[in-house]
Design a protein that fits this description.
CATH topology of the largest domain: BirA Bifunctional Protein, domain 2
Strand content: 15-25%
Distance between the termini: 85 Å
Strand order of the largest sheet: 1-5-6-10-9-8-7
Structural class: alpha+beta
Largest sheet: 7 strands, mixed
Bound molecules: 3,4-dihydroxyphenylalanine
Shape: elongated
CATH architecture of the largest domain: 2-Layer Sandwich
Number of domains: 2
């Protein structure tokens, strides 16, 4: 038996393999449960104790040698496959695909950038809001239609807790927390119980703008928005103010810019008028200032509420609101920062 072990030991030492199969063959022949070494161990158990001890020792040595050999063969194999890979070091690198920002994020960031340069701070407020901050403080009469179920998602009734229908709630929170001068812009998501279509969605985004100080007038509002439109859309953009009504501003105006989709010649987006509304605005109503603890005799202010989807639509010529929330990668990957 000792001689057989020695012969096998010599075989093991001399074994070489050029591929994976060869290595596997080695494992099967010598080391596996059905291999030669296991067989020898079984045989050894039958030997008389004296011999068992002696044979056991050399058999163990053989086992260790075979295991070391297997490791060596595996290592050799790995080295040879690595070096045989066809490497062309002159190839240009594969460009890493990095995700890009959502078009609404790009627009929001651009709006923030423009207003920050004018000295506005960015502020944030809750999306789950109470009736007072969303409506009452903003001078909505008790029975105003905007409070009805058709527009507002209520979470709780009495006291009413709801999903904010506009970012104007942040105006209220800011004015109650800070003393004028206040110059802030407040981007965020808003919710309305509307049927989803190309032109309406149950959630969308707004940016609220608020400037409260001594002697703030309508001219400041006009000039600020005129500056904004030119920064956002280029110097040839035209802007117009249309008289309007909001409970929280007096006087109020809606702001239109020339339709960038049809360049004024008339299309579905501008309803063939050549103009598209991008924001509501006005001078903060004295009642609102009072509700927020600011003396309307001493301070005045202007406010703007702008739809980010609308601004984005004109910026990138996308005229279906649903595309913004469908997460279709083919749509999303088309947008890059426009500087
Ligand atoms: N909150 C209004 C809305 O969602 C938009 C708005 C209009 C905001 C006029 C204002 C404003 O700050 O002055 O329809």
């Amino acid at each position: 038996m000792e001689n057989r072990i020695r012969t096998i030991a010599n075989e093991v030492a001399a074994y070489s393999a050029s591929d994976k199969q060869g290595v596997e063959q080695f494992r099967l022949s010598y080391i596996s449960k059905k291999g030669l070494i296991t067989e020898l161990f079984d045989e050894m158990k039958k030997l008389p104790p004296e011999e068992k001890k002696k044979v056991g020792k050399i058999l163990n040595e053989l086992k260790q040698a075979a295991e070391a050999k297997l490791a060596e063969l595996n290592e050799q194999l790995e080295r040879s496959t690595a070096s045989s890979i066809d490497l062309d070091l002159t190839l240009p690198p594969v460009t890493q695909t990095v995700g890009n920002q959502h078009p609404l994020t790009l627009t929001r960031n651009r709006i923030i950038e423009i207003f920050e340069r004018l000295g506005f701070n960015v502020a944030d407020g809750p999306e789950i809001e109470d009736d007072w901050h969303n409506f009452s403080a903003l001078n909505f009469p008790e029975n105003h239609p905007a409070r009805e179920m058709q527009d507002t998602f209520f979470i709780e009734k009495n006291p009413d807790i709801l999903l904010r229908t506009h970012t104007s709630n942040v105006q209220v929170r800011l004015m109650r927390e800070q003393k004028p001068p206040i110059r802030a812009i407040m981007p965020g998501r808003v919710y309305r119980n509307e049927a989803i279509s190309a032109r309406a969605h149950c959630f969308f985004h707004q940016v609220e703008v608020l400037y409260v100080d001594k002697n703030v007038g309508f001219a400041d509002l006009k000039q600020t928005l005129y500056h904004f439109a030119k920064e956002m859309y280029g110097k040839d953009i035209q802007i117009r103010f249309r008289p309007s009504f909001f409970p929280f501003t007096e006087p109020s105006a809606e702001i239109d810019i020339t339709c960038l989709i049809c360049k004024g010649s008339g299309c579905n987006v501008c309803k063939h008028s050549g103009w598209v509304e991008i924001a509501g605005s006005g001078m903060v109503h004295p009642n609102v200032l009072r509700n927020c603890g600011i003396d309307p005799e001493e301070y005045t202010g202007f406010a703007v509420g702008m739809g980010i989807e609308r601004v984005t639509m004109l910026r990138y010529q996308v005229n279906d609101l649903r595309l913004y929330s469908e997460n279709d990668i083919r749509f999303l990957k088309q947008f890059h920062t426009v500087i």
